[in-house]
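Justification of resources, computational component.

The compute hours requested in this renewal are based largely on the per-chain cost of generating structure records like the one below. Each record pairs the submitted sequence with a full structure-token output. That output is archived, and it is also reused by downstream analysis tasks.
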Amino acid sequence: MKGFKKEFIFITLGIIFPLLLHTLKVNAGSFGAEIFCTMRDGGNDHESSWDAAYTYIKKQKGGIFKVSPKQAAAQITESVIRDRDTFSYCVEYLDQLHPNRKLMRDLEKEKENKEREAKNREIKRKKLEKELEETNEEFSDETIERYSY
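The structure output for this chain reads:
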């Protein structure tokens, strides 16, 4: 009978504990969505609204593993979609939670290429200036004078 009680307790905890954690996670995401949407509706910019919501979600999650920005964005999106009636004004802001990663990488590469090209142009310019100075040093003022025969 004692063994049965221990097994029963462990099984009960094994069922209840994950449900409790899931409930906390859903509530954190839901209130995170409320924070994000309320701030956006109030006229705040995306960054400050996102930081506030993400900080709240991270704080509520706790535990060993941290919530990634993608997970938090997904939780906010899920909460807004699940409760469309409450968050109907917030749907227009959801696209900013999931930026186009490929576009961001392409823009970053383009920026790096422009910086590299500018550096190369500067190096070439300095090299040409140096060559010009060396060439000017080779000729004296007499040789450059036009009418000296």
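The helical segments are 2-41, 46-61, 69-82, 101-138, 141-144. The two ends are 124 Å apart (CA to CA).
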